[in-house]
Amino acid sequence: MAIDDTGRRRRGCLVGALVLAGAELALIAAALIWFGRAVDDPTSAGYGLLRVIRGETPAEVFITEAIIERMAKKAGVPPDEVAALKREMGPISKDLPRLSEGEKEKLATLIRGAVEDGRVTDDELAAIRSYSYRSARDGNAKP
Question: What is the DSSP letter of 119?
Answer without folding.
Answer: -
